[in-house]
Amino acid sequence: MSAAHELLAVDPAVAARNFRTKHLAADLVIVGGGLAGTCAAITAARAGATVILVQDRPVLGGNASSEVRLWALGATAHMFNNNRWSREGGVLDELLVENTYRNPEGNAVLFDSVLLDKVVAEHNITLLLNTAADGVTKDGDRITTVTAFCSQNSTRYELTAPIFCDASGDGVLGYLAGAAYRMGAESKDEFGELFAPSESYGGLLGQSIYFYSKDVGVPVQFTPPEYALDDITKIPRWRSFNTKVQGCRLWWIEYGGRLDTVHDTEEIKWELWKVVYGVWNHLKNSGDFPEAETLTLEWVGLIPGKRESRRFEGLYMLRQLDLVEQRRHDDAIASGGWSIDLHPADGVFSEHAGSSHLHPRGVYQIPYRCLVSKNVNNLLFAGRIISVSHVAFASTRVMATCAQVGQAAGMAAVLCTRDDVLPADLLQPDRLRTLQRELLRTGQHIPGVRLEDPDDLAQLATLTASSEFVLAELPADGPAALLEHSRAQLLPLPAGAVPQLTLTVDVAAPTTLAVELRTGNRPDDYTPDVILARQEFELDAGPGQQIKVDVDTSIDEPRYAFLVLLQNSAVSVRTTNQQATGLVSLQHKSTQEADERVGRPRVEFWTPERRPEGRNFALAVNPPIAAWIVDNLQNGYARPTAQPNAWAADPTDARPTVRLNWADLQRISRIELGFDTDFDHAMESVLWNHAERAMPFCVQHYLIRAGNQVVAERLDNHQTRNTITFDPPLQTTELSVELLTTHGNTPTPLFEIRCY
User: Fold this and answer.
1) Which UniProt keywords apply (predicted)?
2) How far apart are CA 715 and CA 578, in angstroms?
3) What is the span of the domain harbouring residue 687?
4) pTM of the complete model
5) Per-residue pLDDT reduced to its tens digit, 121-166
6) Are residue 264 and residue 356 in the same domain, yes or no?
């Protein structure tokens, strides 16, 4: 046969053909490659499980991807609430920290690349993009096989595993498997939820499509498509549109809450396209926006970002009071902190405001029971479809919270396959403690739960440090901050008498300055509505005046207190350029007033400014605060809670070092280090410029020694967690970690060191 004939394939006509079929097996099959599914897959793969990740789109990330371009956000909520140091931990933290480092400008395409990079690096993950699950087979109450089809390679997949996870957003796997679910809003009476919406408000949140514009420097004409909305005044808030706002800042271009948000998505998409092109026509051609002359429409979303569709019924349904009262759950595996954020079902066409918020005082726990299907025995849920009421869903639905739940589902699947048990079996107390421990080891943050790790050899060591940071004075080398709003400095006070605190103020005119010492209702509560003491200072005009806050009160247990300077436009407080782990200053600009009719508590918002603003107060402390001790490295908390929970060296220490000494020879295969990437900083993934690529508190350069021998060195770290492995294992009675530089002006901090 000639070479030309070898290039030709001839297949004679037949009655019918079938698509190529591939059979794949793994320990875990995950349907859905948004942030929840992605974090579940990475978590399980790193724990040793084989994973098949099925994603029906060409990229990972779901609503965070370049196809939709919504920022990933959760408990930090743009730093607009009282959830201090609440950014989600674990795999999501790694992804957001990496994205901020590579992509501080928030380019959605680059965030795609970060997600794909992390997934393809895991050899235990088989990634099937452009592949949609379309069938399930079961044996009794268990899923045995999921079928899926990839339109790009015309291949049908038959996927088997002992455990399955639905992270698909619409719950396609749970739906096909017959899992119990709900759509819409429960009545106020079912769970005693006063915030449940009225019929006029509607029972579903809608979907959104965003657009980006670009200034090309020359006039650009725009001819709208025929389907563009021709009467912009049909949108009640049409006067809010302008040329300066784009992307997901226009989240309220929303529609579809009165429709079936699963099966009517194409209809919803077309209506949103009509709105977007009608809005752009208004901006370009109404004559009201001359600055739009050189703007072009750079990008319009091709698929809508979905908020709500199915919610599946698990072994517990989280509800409004769980969030508002911050109820404790023995099976807590994740945290939430976004407000309860309900949107009117009519979306952009509604006469209501675009959203209605109810803010709890702080973060809340999410129980494992919400992830376990009540009637499909080997099915876990992750993402926005977990078992929650419509009201609670309004908070748990946001992507960073979904991702943290995904991490928990991934780890639960690992334990199920390792021990040959079903998801519900992990509620047995010993197994549940194991699940929580494994999650904490990977960096997950579970409010109120500390890591108790019997395998950690560092717990057997004697720890010493070259020095410890003691807060005696923060120099007044920063700009003065005007008290146009009340300001506060968060301080980690020890139990006992409150130290004397000396501040420096500049006074423009004679006045009376009121100063209060406040705290929350728990040691880790950052809503300061408990006033411990108050002083008033009569001040004459003049710069550089010292005031000594000396209150006769005491603290019952170690906790954060707020040194509050009440609003006074005649006074400015001196600040410092010194930064330190666990120290932050705040402003009070707004208050959520109580409304008993909907169960809304009164919450004063005390929020930080983003760097490079937001400096700490310059102050002197007598006696000094010694809250950054080396023993913190063994306390089981890897972020500030009721105290900083970090060891930090004295700023004058030239080689900050922590040493671990054992009485007997230890065999060490792995060391885990926890650094400070500022869990108080909201790392929005897109459309938000971040001031730093690497967080200033994070250790950049460190050495590890076994005795006198350097066994590891990292020159350019920017991540929260570092794992150092040794093959063959180290054998030593002494380890030392030298923290040489950070990325900023901070006493060198470390949250944890664990050895295995």
Assistant:
1) 4Fe-4S, Iron, Iron-sulfur, Metal-binding, Oxidoreductase
2) 24
3) 457-467+629-755
4) 0.97
5) 999 999 999 999 999 999 999 999 999 999 999 999 999 999 999 9
6) no
